[in-house]
Specification:
The complex is a heterodimer of chains A (about 350) and B (about 260).
Chain A lengths: L2 H20 L7 H10 L14 H36 L11 H16 L10 H19 L1 E2 L2 E2 L1 H25 L4 H9 L7 H20 L1 H7 L3 H6 L4 H23 L5 H13 L3 H25 L8 H19 L6
Helix pairs in contact in A: 1-3, 1-13, 2-3, 3-8, 3-11, 3-12, 3-13, 4-5, 4-6, 4-7, 4-11, 5-6, 5-11, 8-11, 12-13, 13-14
Chain B lengths: L4 E10 L2 E11 L4 E5 L6 H8 L7 E6 L2 E2 L5 H5 L2 E4 L10 H6 L14 H13 L15 H14 L4 E5 L7 H16 L3 E5 L3 H7 L2 E6 L2 E6 L1 H4 L2 H8 L6 E2 L6 E2 L3
Parallel strand pairs in B: 3-8, 3-9, 6-7, 7-8
Antiparallel strand pairs in B: 1-2, 1-4, 4-5, 9-10, 11-12
Helix pairs in contact in B: 4-5
Classes of the chains: A mainly alpha (about 350), B alpha/beta (about 260).
């Protein structure tokens, strides 16, 4: 990685964050956004004069900034998770949800929204917890079923993921038919949205995503060797089973954390790694690093569109990622994916 | 004494069907071994056991007198290199691919040293792929890829080389060049063990032949001792005349 490169990525991300924070149903001048942000950074506070209104400060700090940062975290997390699953399952169709994370989280969230939250048993803030538990239970089930003679086997794992997801998705539909109150909440959740998310959600997802990205980079060298095939990787000193287990755990935890705060946002984790593989190549250190930042920026831009295009209404960001993602996916399919055995 | 690798009563079964039964072998340094036998004889399984990718259910394999199971995967990678039958290719350059052969020798977050680069360079030179160093592997022909895989294994600088049908996708010239290279490696002290289907390549280049049939070692020795018309008929079910090469005197196997 060239350092100049890293510097320009950081500057680009900061610029997009500032612009995205300024945009919205109430437009806030860039100067105010910069001032409000700087006033919160120790050392820079002396440089700015507080000329903005309190309401603007509340919008920037309490409403927009956490959501903007969450878009970065979720976009980056889903992309890193996508790289991990595509690499470890050696399957170009693998995405962060391939082993049941999304359907498990959906069932958990639907159960929470339909049974527990309306009854006042728990607050709305517990929703991520329901989703997270659902995601982890599904992942655990799939990875148990995906073992063949005690070894994780990519094809079995993918098939188990598809089968378990089908069952869980059917259960979500069943719940929705049986309980029709709060249906809109469930729908919005299923489509994936960052609407109304605050610092609390950011605090839930960030540790998983940051730790996951660091662990992913730490496993990058092994993943490069693993691309050669299991036998070759073994002969080059990689403990194949241990690597598969680690990737599975890290990838699912990151994906589950993202899903639990944002719902099911599709295509980011599938297409960002693909696009980057075509641009920066298959080497995993480069691929993970770039996928993370491009995924973060992509979701931030998509979410900013989701809340500004039809102001004051906003729609779930999952709709935008799918509208862009679907055609892109078809393009990749037609072009070939560079993944020939 | 002096065995590089020793197998003692090795048995491996797959779902209760024995693939290899009670196999005992001794392999020395500086020799080029050929493993031959009909399809399903257990040849690839033997290589996977030697590489510790599979573990025998009975018996034990020793490397330098030490049980194979006592080596960590990473330590083993410094002792034994493998050219598998099937490899996956993806957008890495030839040089990056050959450098993967050095992975057991540097740390997780480290980079290949100048020494690693020099070793990779040398491996590319002997396999005649130096000119392809910056090409992308997935764009190369089957034969060129095969030589990249060979270079990667050479770059590991191990005392043992295992090769599963290394000549299958190669044209005649490269088949012969590959065998010459393996012969040269064995003369440098390496124990080379190759599964080969072309009996004439084995007859020409190997020092010692193991013949496997239905999971058993049915014969071993020099090509001249092993490749008799009777053995070919018994194991491969093909009748051949007794022929020998007019220049080398080695057996020639053709119907």
């Amino acid at each position: 990685m060239r350092h100049r490169h890293v510097g320009s990525i950081i500057i680009l991300v900061l610029a997009v964050v500032v612009v995205a924070t300024a945009l919205g149903s109430v437009r806030i001048p860039l100067g105010d956004v910069l001032g409000i942000l700087a006033s919160r950074i120790p050392g820079l506070k002396v440089l700015v004069q507080e000329t903005w209104s309190v309401s603007r400060e509340v919008i920037v700090l309490q409403v927009r900034l956490p959501r903007v940062l969450l878009a970065l975290v979720v976009g980056g997390g889903l992309s890193v998770s996508g790289v991990l699953f595509q690499g470890s399952l050696r399957n170009p169709l693998a995405d962060p949800y391939i082993i049941g994370v999304s359907s498990g989280a959906s069932l958990g969230a639907a159960a929470g929204l339909l049974f527990f939250i309306p009854q006042g048993l728990v607050g709305f803030g517990a929703l991520p917890l329901f989703a997270f538990v659902g995601a982890m239970l599904a992942t655990f089930t799939v990875s148990r079923l995906g073992q063949h003679r005690g070894r994780l086997e990519p094809t079995s794992l993918i098939l188990a993921g598809v089968a378990v997801s089908a069952v869980l998705t059917a259960l979500v539909s069943l719940l929705m038919v049986l309980r029709i109150q709060n249906l809109q909440d469930v729908y919005i959740w299923l489509m994936g949205s960052l609407s109304g998310r605050g610092w609390k959600h950011l605090a839930v997802a960030t540790p998983y995503v940051v730790a996951g990205a660091i662990l992913a980079l730490w496993m990058a060298k092994d993943l490069n060797v693993y691309l050669l095939g299991e036998e070759a990787a073994h002969s080059l000193g990689i403990d194949v089973e241990r690597l598969q287990r680690r990737v599975l755990v890290v990838g699912s935890l990151v994906a589950a954390a993202c899903v639990s705060v944002s719902g099911v946002i599709g295509f980011v984790g599938l297409m960002v790694p693909h696009a980057l593989r075509l641009i920066v190549g298959a080497e995993h250190r480069r691929l993970i690093f770039h996928s993370m930042w491009v995924g973060a920026l992509f979701l931030l831009v998509a979410d900013t569109l989701a809340r500004t295009v039809l102001t004051p209404t906003e729609f779930p960001v999952g709709i935008i990622t799918a509208i862009v993602g679907g055609p892109f996916f078809i393009y990749l399919m037609k072009r070939g994916t560079g993944y020939h055995g | 004494m002096g065995d590089k690798i020793r197998l003692e009563g090795v048995t491996y079964s797959y779902d209760q069907n024995p693939v290899l039964e009670n196999l005992s072998m001794h392999l020395q340094p500086s020799l080029f071994y050929g493993v031959v036998g009909p399809n399903g004889a257990g040849k690839s399984t033997l290589l996977k056991l030697l590489d510790s990718f599979l573990r025998p259910q009975k018996g034990e394999i020793f490397l330098n007198g030490r049980p194979l199971s006592s080596f960590s995967v990473q330590d083993l990678a410094k002792e034994i290199a493998m050219v598998p039958q099937h490899s996956h290719y993806f957008p890495f350059t030839v040089e990056e691919m050959v450098l993967l052969g050095r992975t057991p020798f540097y740390t997780r977050l480290g980079k290949p040293s100048d020494n690693d680069l020099a070793i990779a360079q040398e491996a590319m030179r002997v396999t005649d792929i130096e000119h392809l160093a910056h090409r992308v592997v997935s764009d190369l022909s089957g034969g060129e890829r095969q030589r990249v895989t060979l270079a990667r294994a050479f770059a590991q600088r191990t005392g043992v080389l295992l090769l599963d049908e290394p000549t299958t996708h190669l044209d005649l010239e490269h088949q012969i060049n590959t065998c010459r290279l393996l012969k040269a490696k064995s003369e440098e002290g390496v124990t080379c063990i190759a599964v080969l289907h072309d009996l004439n390549l084995v007859a020409n280049f190997c020092d010692h032949v193991f013949v496997l049939d239905r999971g058993r070692l049915v014969k071993q020795g020099t090509p001249g001792d092993v490749f008799t018309p009777k053995l070919i008929e018994d194991v491969f079910h093909v009748a051949v005349p007794k022929l020998s090469h007019p220049l080398t005197g080695r057996p020639v196997i053709t119907p």
